[in-house]
Specification:
- By secondary structure, the protein is α/β, with parallel strands linked by helices.
- The protein has one domain (about 10-260): Nitrilase/N-carbamoyl-D-aminoacid amidohydrolase.
- It is about 25% helix and about 30% strand.
- It has helices spanning about 20-40, 60-65, 70-85, 125-130, 160-165, 185-200, 250-255; strands spanning about 10-15, 40-45, 85-95, 100-110, 115-120, 140, 145-150, 170-175, 200-205, 210, 215-220, 220-225, 230-235, 240-245.
- Helix 1 packs parallel to helix 3 (about 70-85).
- The protein is globular.
- The N and C termini lie far apart (about 40 Å).
C-alpha cells in the first residue's frame, strides 16, 4: 500500500502590497510567514506579485522592477524557508537576460532549495501584449506531495488544472491578484471549487485584498477539498493567515471512488486544440 505524508497544515497569506515597495512588502510577508511557521504550517503561500504589488494599468512599472532567480525576493524567501524549515510559494515577476518578463511563482522547499517555477500561461489585460507567457505545466514532486500551480486568470481555464492532474498533481496552488469588481468575486469562488472537484485534488488559493492604487482586490483566499467543499476562507478586505489541513490519503481515496480522471475519452476532444 502506498504511503502518504501525514496530514499537514498549509497557510495562505492574504495581504495587501504597497505598490513597488519591495522592502516593505518583503518585511510584511516575513512577519506573516514567521507566524504561520510558528503555528505549524508546512506550506506557506503568498499572493501573485506580492513583492511589488499589482496594478493592471501599470504593468510596465512592474516589469521594470522584475528580477531573476538571483534577485532579492527569491534569495530572501530561500533563506527564510531554510531558517524556518517550511515550503514557500513566492510569486514574482521574472526578467530574462534579454529583457523578456514573465509572471512567475517560485516553489522553495524546507531546505531553502528552489524546486522550480511556473510562469502564467494565460496573461490577461495588458499582460497579453507586454509579458511573455509560459507554455509549461510542471508538477513538483515534493515531501508534501505532488504540487501544481496556476496563477490568477489561469484558473478560469479547466484545461490547465486538468493537465496538472493528469501529470499527477494532488494539490493545486493558486496565487492571485483577483479583482473584486463586477461579478468577479463569485467567479473566483465557482472556479476554485470546480477545479477541485473536476480533478479530485485540493485547491489552495491566496489572493490580494483591499485597494491598491485604483484597483480593488477580492480577497476571499480559500481552501477547497478534493470534492469541492469549502474548507476555509477569508473575507474580502482583511489581511491575515488562512490555515487548512492537507491529507493526501483523501486524494487517493476520492480518486479511487470517483473515476472521472480515467473515464475520459481524449479521442473525442480534438476540438479543444483548435
Amino acid at each position: 500500500m502506498e504511503q502518504y505524508p501525514v496530514p499537514y497544515q498549509v497557510a495562505m497569506i492574504q495581504m495587501a502590497s504597497d505598490f513597488l515597495n519591495r522592502k516593505e512588502n518583503l518585511a510584511k510577508a516575513e512577519g506573516y510567514i514567521r507566524t504561520a511557521a510558528a503555528n505549524g504550517a508546512k506550506l506557506i503561500c503568498l499572493p501573485e506579485s506580492f513583492d511589488v504589488g499589482y496594478i493592471s494599468t501599470r504593468i510596465p512599472e512592474m516589469m521594470a522592477a522584475a528580477e531573476n532567480e538571483q534577485g532579492e525576493t527569491v534569495l530572501f524567501m530561500k533563506a527564510l524557508a531554510k531558517e524556518l524549515g517550511v515550503h514557500i510559494l513566492a510569486p514574482a515577476f521574472w526578467k530574462s537576460q534579454d529583457g523578456a518578463v514573465e509572471n512567475r511563482a517560485y516553489l522553495i522547499d524546507d531546505e531553502g532549495t528552489l524546486l522550480g517555477s511556473y510562469a502564467k500561461t494565460h496573461p490577461v489585460g495588458d499582460e497579453r501584449t507586454l509579458l511573455q507567457r509560459g507554455t509549461q505545466y510542471p508538477v513538483f514532486d515534493t515531501k508534501l506531495g505532488k504540487i501544481g500551480i496556476t496563477i490568477c486568470y489561469d484558473v478560469c481555464f479547466p484545461e490547465t488544472s486538468r493537465l496538472l492532474a493528469l501529470n499527477g498533481a494532488e494539490i493545486l496552488l493558486v496565487p492571485a491578484a483577483w479583482r473584486g469588481n463586477f461579478y468577479f468575486k463569485e467567479w473566483w469562488d465557482i472556479n476554485l471549487c470546480c477545479r477541485a472537484i473536476d480533478n479530485l485534488m485540493y485547491v489552495a488559493a491566496v489572493n490580494m485584498c483591499g485597494p491598491t492604487g485604483d484597483q480593488y482586490f477580492a480577497g476571499k483566499s480559500q481552501i477547497c477539498s478534493p470534492i469541492g467543499e469549502l474548507m476555509a476562507s477569508c473575507g474580502v478586505e482583511e489581511e491575515g493567515i488562512l490555515y487548512g489541513t492537507i491529507d493526501l490519503a483523501r486524494v487517493a481515496k476520492e480518486r479511487e471512488f470517483n473515476t472521472v480522471l480515467i473515464d475520459r475519452h481524449p479521442e473525442d476532444y480534438d476540438a479543444l486544440t483548435k
